[in-house]
Specification:
The structure is a single chain. This protein is an alpha/beta fold. The protein folds into two domains: about 5-160 and about 250-405, Thiolase/Chalcone synthase (Peroxisomal Thiolase, Chain A, domain 1, 3-Layer(aba) Sandwich); about 435-505, OB fold (Dihydrolipoamide Acetyltransferase, E2P). Helix content is about 30%, strand content about 25%. The chain has a ten-stranded mixed beta sheet. It has a five-stranded mixed barrel with strand order 13-14-15-17-16. The protein is globular, with a radius of gyration of 23 Å. It starts with 6 loop residues before the first strand and ends with a strand.
């Protein structure tokens, strides 16, 4: 790779519209944000950050956008291009997935290296706060839905849950991730109290980073105890996660990054102190895809493959990384990333540069574009290299990118490791389970008041077949269920009216 085709990130922009702040765009609801207007504002911020003036707009030959939840514009790329006055030759989009911003970044960076793209703008937005506020108020919002042409999709949609999982309500991250968390706790041999303290200690530094981040949704430092103790303000959502340990979904946010070949950056006059280099990237998916079909709830081979693949692609080791931003929708995503990268949960380099999804926001699909933008700013200020990771669905799809404050060495190794291996054995299920059973992992879902509402178990029959089941218990029984470790507990499973029910022994 010649020096002229090295990839530089030369401008970043982020926008956050919190409750009580003026919205962006002309919508008939106080504080509402038009997704196109918010996205265009972040894009203009990125152009301004590059300090190139309006001349950079005419140089943009590619625009790529992360899928925006609940904004079904026909071609949002064309809408953004028209709003900016740009005329890109390429229009790219992703589909649903928190891994997709880094997939987009890596895709565009590699095309720049190959000489197919000179200057690109990538962005994404998320206005669930506005959409839910409009729904509650009974206000109809006329969002921009047009856009000529059809952009090229660089990722594809695939349901995150199987029909079997959907039948038991395992269709949202808040109900699925606790299954991984409880399995990992048991694997580590931690008591419920030890584990609760460790989750608080893990996430407390995230809140401090968010408190210093001007783009964070919740810029509020919280103690470890405050994060994990159930209170009326911090209700239990699904055991063992309180509200403060869940990614926040109701935000209005946008981010954008301007990147170019080194040659194009010089031609445009991009200042040296604005440049951060793309060193490499990786991505992988779990196989089996659906979470309850995976053999081990306390492991994630694809996460390791994506992160280690990015490091190998960049030609560096994890010890040569100065800063991390690990995808942090729930604590278990961070815990597994630390395990698989071989870094401590209290690594002095820090695990986030934004504050993470529960505190900085940016969920839906676009968080890791915010983290890449924040990493650019951090590397400009401090130097070194940073690793950013992304995660889609339920630890299902993974991506990673390495960025650096200095250019990579010419001719460095670009040999990424093989994709995540497929599990050796296929899990057999007992959809009409009956007989002695043992719990593999579990959770208890809580209502809006924080009271336990429904228990879910993933377990094994005596013949080794896996089953999903409701927990046969009333409120008092569910309270007892979450008061003690259930992984490994024996009981009996039976089937009635098409549903499995587990009764602890």
């Amino acid at each position: 790779m010649s020096g002229g085709r090295a990839v530089v990130l030369i401008g970043v922009g982020q926008r956050t519209v919190r409750p009580g702040e003026p919205g962006v765009g002309a919508l008939p609801l106080e504080g509402a944000s038009d997704p196109l207007a918010l996205l265009a504002a972040a894009a203009r911020d990125a152009l301004d950050d590059a300090r190139l003036g309006k001349s950079a707009i005419g140089a943009i030959d590619t625009i790529g956008l992360v899928d925006a939840l609940a904004w079904p514009a026909k071609n949002p790329v064309r809408l953004l291009a028209e709003a900016l006055g740009a005329k890109p030759k390429r229009e790219l989009v992703t589909k649903v997935g928190g891994e997709s911003p880094l997939v987009l970044l890596n895709h565009v960076a590699r095309a720049i290296e190959r000489g197919e793209i000179d200057v690109a703008l990538i962005g994404g937005t998320h206005v669930i706060k506005t959409l839910r506020a409009a729904s509650k108020a009974g206000v109809r919002l006329e969002l921009p839905l047009g856009g000529d042409g059809e952009p090229i999709a660089i990722t594809q949609n695939k349901a995150g849950s199987s029909a079997r999982e959907g039948a038991y309500g395992l269709m949202l991250p808040a109900s699925v991730y606790p299954l991984f968390e409880n399995a990992l706790r048991a694997r580590r041999g931690l008591s419920l109290d030890e584990h609760r303290r460790r989750m608080g200690a893990l996430m407390e530094p995230f809140t401090r980073v968010a408190a210093a981040n001007p783009h964070a949704w919740f810029p509020v430092p919280r103690s470890a105890e405050e994060l994990v103790k159930p209170t009326p303000a911090n209700r239990m959502v699904a055991f063992p996660y309180t509200k403060y340990l869940n990614a926040v979904i109701e935000t209005d946010q946008a981010a954008a990054i301007l990147l170019a070949s080194e040659e194009a950056a010089r031609r445009l006059g991009a200042a040296q102190d604005r440049r951060v280099w793309w060193w490499g990237g990786g991505q992988a998916v779990e196989d089996p895809w659906f979470p309850t079909e995976r053999p081990d709830f306390a492991d994630c081979p694809a996460l390791a493959s994506a992160a280690q693949g990015a490091l190998a692609d960049a030609g560096v080791t994890v010890d040569e990384i100065a800063r991390f931003d690990l995808y942090s929708c729930f604590p278990v995503a961070v815990e597994l990333a630390c395990d698989l990268l071989g870094i401590a949960e209290d690594d002095p380099r820090g695990l986030t540069v934004t504050g993470g999804l529960p505190y900085a926001g940016g969920p839906g699909n676009n968080y890791s574009l915010h983290s890449a933008a924040a990493m650019v700013e951090k590397l400009r200020a401090e130097g070194g290299r940073g690793l950013v990771t992304g995660n889609g669905w339920y630890l299902t799809k993974h991506s990673a990118a390495v960025l650096g404050a200095s250019p990579p060495a010419p001719g460095r190794s670009r040999n990424a490791p093989a994709a995540a291996p497929r599990a050796a054995a296929t899990i057999e299920f007992a959809d009409a389970a009956d007989g002695a059973a043992t719990v593999e992992t579990y959770t208890v879902l809580h209502d809006r008041s924080g009271a336990p509402e429904r228990g879910l178990v993933v377990g094994r029959q005596g013949d080794g077949r896996r089953f999903l089941a409701d927990v046969a218990a009333d409120r008092a029984g569910l309270e007892a269920f979450v008061a003690a470790e259930q992984v490994g507990r024996h009981g009996r499973v039976s089937n009635a009216n098409g549903r499995n029910r587990f009764e602890p022994r």
